[in-house]
Amino acid sequence: MKKLFSFMDNGFRENGFHENGYTETIRKGLDAVRGFRRGLIDGSAFSPVEKEEAVARLSDALDGADAVVVGAGAGLSASAGFTYSGERFEKVFFDFGRRFGIRDMYSGGFYPFPDEETRWAWWARHIYFNRYVDPPKPVYPKLLELLRDKDYFVLTTNVDHQFQRAGIDKSRLFYTQGDYGLFQSASRRNRATYDNEEWVRRAMAAERFIPDEDGVFTVPKDRLLSMRLPTELIPKCPDGSAAVMNLRADESFVEDEGWHRASAAYAAFLKAHEGERVLYLELGVGANTPVIIKYPFWAMTAENPKAVYACLNRGEAVAPAEIGKQSLCIDGDIGEILARLG
Question: Which of 102, 199, 243, 276, CA to CA, is 20 to 30 A from 110?
C-alpha cells in the first residue's frame, strides 16, 4: 500500500496539484477501520417497518443536508440495468459465448483470446454497450433530480460514464478507476489518455452491427456478426504505441490531468464542508473495493457528529456499530429506493 500511495503522490506533485483526495481519504478510512470493533449493523435484518423508517429518515437527511457526497459503485449501474450477464450478455455476446464459453462481460475482459483482432472485437462491443448507450432504467437521471438543488460531489469507481450522460456537472465528479471511453498507451513513457469514441463506432460497423433510427448500434436480423476486426483497426495511440484501456489494474494506469484535477476538487469539497450537515450517500458499493468509498465514508461520518451515512445496497447494506446512530442501512434495489425519496 505504501508503494501505491508513493506512486500516486509523486504523480500529483508532478502535475502541479497539492491535495490528493483519493489517497488522503483512503488513508483516513484505513486508519478508522482498524478502530471499529463492535461489529456491523445489517440492513437486511431490518423489518419492513424499520426499512420504511430508514427511507423516511433518508429523505429528511437529504432535505436538511448542507452538502451531499455520493459514493457510487457497480451496484448503481446494475440497478439502472447495466448487468454484465444474463439476457443483456446473450443479446450482444452470444457468438463469443458460444465459441469461447464466456458467460459474462466481466470475465470476458480477462479471456486469453487467440489474437489481437479478436480481443479488440470483444473490447469494442464491451466499451460500446457499457459506455456509449443509455442504461435501460432512469436511475441516474433520478439521482441527478434529487441532487439538483444541493451542493454535491460524486465519487465513483464506475467506469461507464453514466453520470456524465445523465447530466452530472463534470466539475463535481471524480471517477477514480478510469473510463471505458479512454485509451492510454502501453508505453509508460506516454502518460496521456485518448478519447476512443470514433474508433469504437468504426469497430462496431466493422463487426456488422447496424445503427437504428436513433443511431444506436444493434444486432442485424441475420445475427451474423464478425468476431474479428481488420488488422488495421487494432487501436494505436498518436505516437504509434499500442493502445490499452484506461482502467486501473496496476501502476501503469494513467492518472491524467483531468484525474488529478478531480481528485483535488474532491479534497477541496470535503474540506469546505468540514463539521457541516453532510450526507454521505453510498450507492451500490460492494466489499471488493471498500477502501475507496466505504471506509472513508465511515471514517468521515465518525469524526463529524452532524454527518449522516446512508448505505443503499442489495444484500450489503451495512455500517459499523460505532456510527450506528448516524447510519441508515437500506437493503434493496437502489432505483426503487431513490424513486421513493421524491
Answer: 199
Provide the residue ranges of all domains of the chain, joining segments of one domain with +: 2-7+17-79+135-179+255-339, 87-134+197-234
Quote the pLDDT of residue 94: 98
- The amino acid that residue 72 corresponds to is A
Evaluate if pTM is beyond 0.85: yes
Report pLDDT digits (tens) over 192-220. Answer: 999 999 999 999 999 999 999 999 999 99
Map grid coordinates 492510454 to a residue: 184
The class that CATH gives domain 2-7+17-79+135-179+255-339 is: alpha beta
Beta carbons within 10 angstroms of residue 236's beta carbon: 16
